[in-house]
Specification:
Blueprint lengths: L4 H9 L7 H8 L6 H24 L13 E3 L5 H4 L13 H6 L7 E4 L4 E3 L3 E8 L6 H4 L8 E7 L4 E5 L1 H6 L3 E5 L5 E6 L6 E6 L4 E5 L4 E6 L4 E7 L5 E4 L1
Parallel strand pairs: 1-2
Antiparallel strand pairs: 2-4, 3-4, 4-5, 5-6, 7-8, 8-11, 9-10, 9-12, 12-13
Helix pairs in contact: 1-3
Length: 243
């Protein structure tokens, strides 16, 4: 066995590399006086092939151009004070692969509680997420609240997500956001407490639109001018709060 045999064998086993057998044979047959050139070529192949394999595994070259990794899925529990306000977490857990894939829209340093994943009809998913303090540099960690930032994350099935929204923001009506959509247009996303059946959006264009709440979540299109204000309505259409 030659000194470079292990390297050649490693090249043959790389997942994303399909080496030409003739090229491998040529590497084995290189004479000692060309050892330096051979080693340099072998090292280059290892670097290129290894980088390609890593990129394919993490989706950097294909589906996910974002170098920040997705939020990790962990096994923890939703705080009781959250479940007391949001009955969506009383629903059965969604264990589907589709839900896990959709939640990759949330990025590190957040982690997602696997047991908290719920479907919102056929339009979105919610999950409870929190900051992974161990993944934060010390300079950033010192600005986090005790236990880290935590709240409800919402992601539509088109992959556009918003949050996590802390419970305090949900209760005071500031748990909302507006995001651009891949196909064009913009979407209003909000999380509201139990008891809110509908919301009224007051758009800057002067238009008022009413939208149903589903599992504590509101997803609604908004015009290019944005939001001027919104209100919570009960099941009879009475205004509970305006913001």
């Amino acid at each position: 066995m030659t000194a470079d045999q292990p390297v050649v064998d490693y090249l043959q086993t790389l997942r994303d590399l399909d080496p030409d057998p003739a090229a491998i044979s040529a590497l084995r047959a290189v004479k000692p006086r060309r050892r330096r050139l051979r080693n340099a070529l072998t090292l280059s192949l290892v670097i290129v092939a290894g980088s390609s394999a890593l990129a394919a595994a993490t989706g950097v070259l294909s589906r996910n151009p974002d170098p920040i990794p997705p939020a990790r899925v962990v096994h923890s529990s939703v705080p009781a004070e959250v479940t007391a306000v949001l009955s969506v977490f009383d629903r059965p857990q969604d264990r589907s692969a589709e839900a896990r894939i959709a939640l990759t829209a949330l990025r590190s340093p957040f982690v997602v509680d696997a047991g908290s994943i719920r479907a919102v009809g056929d339009t979105a998913y919610v999950a409870f997420a929190r900051t992974d303090l161990d993944a934060l540099p010390p300079k950033l960690r010192q600005h986090e609240p005790p236990g880290g930032t935590q709240g409800v994350y919402v992601v539509a099935r088109d992959g556009v997500g918003d949050g996590p929204f802390p419970l305090a923001d949900i209760e005071r009506g500031t748990a909302w956001g507006i995001k651009e959509l891949p196909a064009g247009g913009r979407r209003f996303t909000a999380v509201v407490p139990d008891g809110v059946a509908r919301v009224e959006l007051r758009l800057e264009s002067g238009t008022r639109t009413t939208h149903a709440v589903q599992a504590n979540v509101v997803l609604a299109p908004v015009d290019a001018e944005g939001l001027d204000g919104w209100s919570w309505l009960d099941a009879d259409g009475r205004t509970l709060r305006s913001f």
